[in-house]
Amino acid sequence: MSATPHQALRSSSTALVIGGGLGGLSAAIHLRLAGAHVLLLEANERVGGRAGLLRFDGYRFDTGPSLLNYPWVFENLFGAAGKRMRDYVDLIPVDPSIRFQWPDGASFTLSARLDLLIEECSRLEPGSAPAVMAFLRDTRLKYDLAFAKLVSRNADSLWEWVRPLTLRECARISVWRSLHAELGRFFRNRRIREALGSYGMYLGGSPFELPGFFSILAYGELAYGLWLPRGGIFGLIEGVERLARELGVDIRVNARVRGIRVENARVQGIELESGEILDAPVVISNVDLPATNLRLLPQAYADRAARRTQRTSMTCGAITFYWGLRRALPNMPHHSIFLPDDYRGAFDALFRTRRPSDDPAFYTSIASATDAALAPPGAATMFVLVPVPLLEAAHTEQWDSIVQDMRRHILKRLARHGIAIGREDIVHEIVWTPPEWERRFGLHRGSAFGAAHTLLQNGPLRSSNWSRDIHGLYYAGASTTPGTGLPMVALSGKLAAERALS
Ligand SMILES: Cc1cc2nc3c(=O)[nH]c(=O)nc-3n(C[C@H](O)[C@H](O)[C@H](O)COP(=O)(O)OP(=O)(O)OC[C@H]3O[C@@H](n4cnc5c(N)ncnc54)[C@H](O)[C@@H]3O)c2cc1C
Which residues line ligand 1 at a C-beta cut-off of 6 Å? Predict the structure, then answer.
């Protein structure tokens, strides 16, 4: 058993990356920039993983992520290679960014423009302009601290992690309060708190359970805006893939890895489903971390990992609808979140009783409202995401009936807001449930966002990006550090590469 991750990779040796999600692509780029020969093996027909592409009848959909924030993280990824992101990816601003809607017709619209933000908050909570400014000051401080001192570097112990923080900074990061309680420090209005708290869903978590520190999620979007790459989120993946190939990363698709080969607690390489054997002293797995350990490691290591995995708390699953609509929906903005009357009850159903809620929150994205080329002329793409419990909450046939219930609920709720979509408006529908997400991308228990971001699963308390059992094995992606979401997994690839090279 090795105690440190050091010196697994010399700059001229070969490294294998399993999985071409954004974390895997980022790891491959950083390894290649350090001089390694990099071969990336992706099971599916294209890279991107959860940030994949669906195309039918002239409609183009992103499979998972639809919100792109913290663009500077991606600029840094291209910048590391001496390139400019704008030569690869065309980012279109989306502002106002998100509209929140409640069943009684109330709404709240967020914008990265300060005057509009203050106006909107003041409409719901008169006199709240100073609270908005205080919130932005507080979250800015946390956000800057997070990226300057916490999430952008590797650390193996709590002490090493927080060492760069002053005592005053430690006190300000609000890890002891829930996100919901943290928002209550600034806003009295329940709708503002519910709207900003529902950013917890970006991490697949409940605002009643996530640490208050995650108030930075809203700040990141307000300060740096929300964006859509031209061509959809997959436009970003295409740009990053192009960069990787230009740098000389060898990418093989339709190449499913069957297992990681290990001898004397050292990585030897991998074996593909085809039976092909590849040798390398370093493997970075971008396959969801618990799934890597349970399915790709030799039995003795997998058994050991199984005990740890049982203790890992995962984020929720998702049912995703991809609707090719016959007509545009001029009254609907690009992004909306539909919140229920019983906000707390919906989160409790998801994370405590673990059953699909009768009145779930859901999220819609009409990317063609920003990039018309994503749908045929006059038509629209509509993506709907409903957070649901993990795949073991229901059998396959039960998922079918849950989908029917959710579709009915969504259409009814939209109609209530004056957005009437008849079945005849939906030219083509594709639906993915947690079992489908698991099957396509190997997501542990069908969890859409990976390991949860509870207090005890952050920083060095989160599953580490290097194996303590197997020398030369590293992890990149949503279930390891720093966490889930496109910017975070891009960083995770960099951090995993640094481990392999350190
Ligand atoms: C529905 C949904 C909505 C989301 N919305 C957003 C959003 O709006 N904004 C945002 O920032 N984030 C969002 N996320 C989160 C974001 O998509 C993920 O955090 C991120 O894409 C995960 O990237 P990853 O690097 O962990 O790899 P993954 O995307 O999980 O990729 C892993 C890759 O490994 C491959 N693989 C698996 N097994 C094997 C094998 N045996 N051999 C070879 N290859 C294999 C898979 O095919 C896949 O390509 C969303 C996620 C989901 C599911």
Answer: 18-24, 41-44, 49-51, 64-67, 256-257, 286-288, 318, 320, 385, 441-442, 448-449, 477-478, 484-486, 489
297 and 326 part of one domain: no
The structure tokens listed for 57 are 């009848």
Ligand 1 atom 15, closest CA: 485
Mean pLDDT computed over every residue of the chain = 94
CA distance 206 to 315: 9
- Other CB atoms within 10 Å distance of the CB of residue 84: 11
Q: What's the gap in Å between 482 CA and the centre of ligand 1?
A: 15
Q: What is the pLDDT of residues 141-192, one digit of tens each?
A: 999 999 999 999 999 999 999 899 998 888 888 788 999 999 999 999 999 9
Closest ligand 1 atom, residue 479 Cα? 26
Atom of ligand 1 nearest to the CA of 443: 30
Domain, as residue range, for 47: 14-72+230-313+450-501
- Per-residue pLDDT tens for 241-293? 999 999 999 999 999 999 999 999 999 999 999 999 999 999 999 999 999 99
357 plus 471 within the same structural domain: no
